Amino acid sequence: ESLPSWMMKNQLHCCLPNLVRIEMKGEDCKLTHLCSFGRLPHLQHLWLWDLNRVEYIEDDEDNAPVNRQAITEVSPLFPKLETLKLWEMPKLEGWRRDSRNTRGSAPPPSFPRLKELYFSEVGFEVIPDQFRGLSSLQTLEIRDCERLKEIPESIVGSTSLKTLWIE
């Protein structure tokens, strides 16, 4: 029903600093949010699928204290991530549930090396802000995302984009 406490307390990057690939599948998963994968310094591939109840990837209500100033001064989230696949996550509303009233503060930069982005059967109505301005994005696939109302021009207008698949 929950991930180990060391994962949920923003300690993943301390415990598994050399991790380059995560594949998480959970057909009967009862989690509504996951943990912060963004601080893993060497993570290149993140595949999440069949997580039917997940509403947010990260949750600011995790038990670990978070210093907003420290987060925004740290180098980008997912500094080496090249491939992100989110499949069959129908309740996914966004990347981070921000419960700390941090509106108005700029989110830290994310995904500077992301080349491939795949969404299939995710519940987004709007693609989260973390995915805007992806300067390295070459492939974008969006399939069966029935609730998605629009795709920001900042994503599809990227000069590096070579493949766009919308179904």
From TrEMBL:
Gene3D superfamilies: Ribonuclease Inhibitor (3.80.10.10). This is Adenylate cyclase. It comes from Opuntia streptacantha (Prickly pear cactus). The lineage of its organism: Eukaryota, Viridiplantae, Streptophyta, Embryophyta, Tracheophyta.
